[in-house]
Amino acid sequence: MRFLPFFLSLTLAGLAALPLRADVPEAVNKVILPDLAAFTQATEGLARTASQGCDAQALKAPWNAAFDAWLKVQHFRMGPFEEGGRGLAIAFWPDPKATGARQMRALLAAQDPQFVTPEGAARLSIAARGLYGLSTLIWQAPQGDYACKLRAALADNLVRMAQAMEDGWRGGFAEQLLDPGADGHTLYLTQDEARQALFTQLIAGLEFNADQRLGRPLGSFDHPRPNRAEAIAEGRSLRNVTLSLRALKTLSDALAQGLGATPQTDAAFAHALQLAGDLDDPVFAGVETPASRLRIEILQQAVRDIRAKATGEIGALLGVSTGFNSADGD
Amino acid sequence: MKNKGTTMKRIILALLAGTALGAQPLAAQTQSIDPAAVIDTYADIAQAGYADSLSTAKALQAAVATLIANPSEDSLEAAKQAWIAARVPYQQTEAFRFGNAIVDDWEGRVNAWPLDEGLIDYVDPNSAAINEENDYALLNIIANKTVTIGGQSVDTSEITPELLSGTLHEAEGIEANVATGYHAIEFLLWGQDLNGTGPGAGARPYTDYVQGADCTGGNCDRRAAYLQAAADLLVRDLEEMVANWDDDGEARTVLEADPADGVSAILTGMGSLSYGELAGERIKLGLLLHDPEEEHDCFSDMTHLSHYYDGLGIRNVYTGRYTRVDGSTVSGPSLSDLVRAADPEVDTALRGDLESSVAALGAMKEAAEGGMAYDQMLAMGNDQGKELIEGAVSALVTQTRSIERAVAALGAQATVEGSDSLDDPNAVFQ
Fold first, then answer.
1. Quick one: closest CA in B to A329, which residue?
2. How many domains are there within chain A?
3. Which residues form the signal peptide (chain A) (predicted)?
């Protein structure tokens, strides 16, 4: 049925205001925009519960749902994510100097009423805000009226940030990627630059899982650092890796869509996800024991292998190399 | 700053390696500029920059010796001025770090940051000096003649350069254990800045170096020994790096052996420092956290100088021109010439961006010199400070895109080379 795709593309080209290309539009329209909307929705659920009462326990499920939704968009560290540090304010991790804990303690001790208003909450240090600030208030569940109001204020602030990020994409940033170099679109000048921008997010997202989510608790063989795993209190260090890899696979598929097959990348993703699925260690506590540590190291290696395969295979399909990303440097 | 061994990106330039991509119609024009000559200029600037860093570090070493011999307000102030002067050339060399493994592997010894200063000397127990991830954050070498590290008792009765670099620096693999380099010396001269995001830098009294009954802070003899050892070590480390850039030095010969790879080293250094390191980790993150602990030169409040001279250093390596501390210049065929031959528009844009970022960092420097220190700019509610910081971040991000365009213009092939070391990656601006 060779005529069908041709027919479809003609029809779509006729309907769509934007130039039709497989990779970037596929990623923007079918992945990024819907997932941003889903994240906003999830944060609204959390804020609704937080506004209805002071039971911290009741916030665990909606917080987890919001975090699940976040993992689908966390790796798009560009444009509206970067503006005013929004993405980091949504989820500030890792926090090696425990800045969040320090700021949260000070906040709860001072009980300053200005910070439980929408304007005040927006001015707080990013380390005390977002999903991680809320996590402290939910899992450690400090008692009292102020803590309750702060939960509601931070949840409200989270909704605003999610909405602003979605609005930023819908209100211009998506167009910059979809129609690079057009009038007023100076961020990306060519299709290659737009492709490179998204491709860089894929690679950097894989690096984040290998170097941070897995690398931090692994530490070194002599000094494993189980306490450095992500979201230990919430029991979801491994879940975060799994969901993030699934989301990156979706992005990888979208980028390659219409350009060619990516058998090596697909196999590498499948392998890593299989390893993650077989790993019965939700917070990577096993890093301290040689046998269980090995399995986590193998998972890390598998994630690095995805990066290597995707760099070659998808980079070649897109005709671009990765650009600089924010984790370059140290 | 920290040498984390995370992924080190290297752009691979296919064009200059003689495998010109067909898609580069202007490629032929670049043949009029010899990449080897560009590399020569780059290495000459590196050599001059490290030589200037060395000469100013020697002046610091002498000023420290004077402070120790004759502690006074004046001799402490003279040592601080020597430290500030030493930072000017050194920060400009940071453009050489990313992209040159020999520099990146070495730099943690001289410029590691952030540090848990309680490892070295007394700190205010109510300050943020406590680091939950570092058992040695309050080790206080100056006050203790034996310490336990990794279950082993360590004799610290004599404070020597070898003790600092061999045993204490990055003890237990924790990068916040910074025992050596500019920031350790900075702490020993200024002391902790306990003013938060308010005005004022660290205010260590000169009497911390007075021997005998008037000694403040305790262990003035050991503090003096530590300071001198750290200054001696800095000089020694810089001597090593100057030699690396001599005519037969390893850093230079590696680049000369493969000029294409050398050009990629220049671009990698420019992009990584501009974006992830400077715009991200060192500048934007502090603003977002509103945390003075995130200030780069947090004891002296001289962060504005660090940022400004980093910016200047990036411009130096692109334009192939460095103004030495004695006012003379080192210049020659530049990366800018090479890019201009490939795509004049990209070159013009990148030059403009570099001017803009130097100007934005200059505005930050001017404000700091006018009385609003960098840590005050970070304060919650300081809109003017926020604007200055965001202006610098924005200029650096913009120039990174132009650097990427320069890579494309020169015919970047692919890709990223990963370092496979997986030591404990610390917080990076993500």
1. B277
2. 2
3. 1-22
Q: Is residue A121 part of a domain?
A: yes
Distance of alpha carbon A97 from alpha carbon B238, whole angstroms: 30
| CATH code, domain with A108 | 1.20.1420.20
| Token pair in block for residue B412 | 């970047």
Q: Where do the DSSP E strands lie in B133-181?
A: 146-149, 152-155
Q: Which domain holds residue A135?
A: 21-166
Gap between the Cα atoms of B301 and B306, Å rounded: 10
Cα–Cα distance for residue pair B91/B322, rounded to 1 Å: 13
**Taking CB atoms and an 8 Å cutoff, what residues of chain B touch A97?**
114, 128, 131, 133, 176, 293, 427
Percentage of chain A beyond pLDDT 90 is 82
Q: Does domain B15-409 have CATH number 1.10.630.10?
A: no
Domain positions in chain B: 15-409
Angle between helices B259-272 and B303-319 (to 10 degrees): 150
Reduce the secondary structure of A179-198 to three states and give it as a string.
CCCCCCCCCCCCHHHHHHHH
Q: What number of H helices and E strands is found in chain A?
A: 15, 0
Task: Give B-chain residues touching A322 at CB under 8 angstroms.
Answer: 9, 414-416
In this predicted model, what pLDDT tens digit does every residue of B72-124 receive, in sequence order?
999 999 999 999 999 999 999 999 999 899 999 999 999 998 889 999 999 99
Tens digits of residue pLDDT in A73-131: 999 999 999 988 899 999 999 988 788 988 899 999 999 999 999 899 999 999 999 99
- Nearest C-alpha of chain A: how many angstroms from B318? 17
- Asked if B76 and B185 touch (Cβ cutoff 8 Å), the reply is no
Q: What is the 3-state secondary structure (H, E, C) of A259-287?
A: CCCCHHHHHHHHHHHHHHHHCCCCCCHHH
**CA of A316 to nearest chain B CA: how many angstroms apart?**
8
The distance of A44 to chain B (nearest Cα, Å) reads 24
Residue B366: what residue type? E
Helix, strand, or coil (residue B146): strand
Q: For B192-224, what is each residue's pLDDT tens digit? A: 998 888 888 999 999 999 999 999 999 999 999
- Residue where a domain stops, chosen among A126, A149, A166: A166
Shared-domain flag, residues A266 and A308:
yes
Yes or no, beta carbons of A97 and B423 under 8 Å apart? no
ipTM of the prediction:
0.80
Give the pLDDT of residue B412: 53
Of A52, A22, A297, A28, nearest to A155 (Cα)? A52
Cis peptide leading into A94, omega within 30 of 0?
yes
B375 interaction partners in chain A (CB closer than 8 Å)? none
DSSP strand pairing (B152-155 vs B321-323): unpaired
Nearest to A162 by CA among A254, A93, A91: A91
- Map residue B151 onto helix, strand or coil: coil
Would you put residue B271 in left (φ > 0), alpha (ψ -120 to 50) or beta? alpha
DSSP B263-329: HHHHHHHHHHIIIIIIIIIIIIHHHHHT-GGG-TTTTTT-HHHHHHHHHHHHHHHHHTEEE-TTS-E
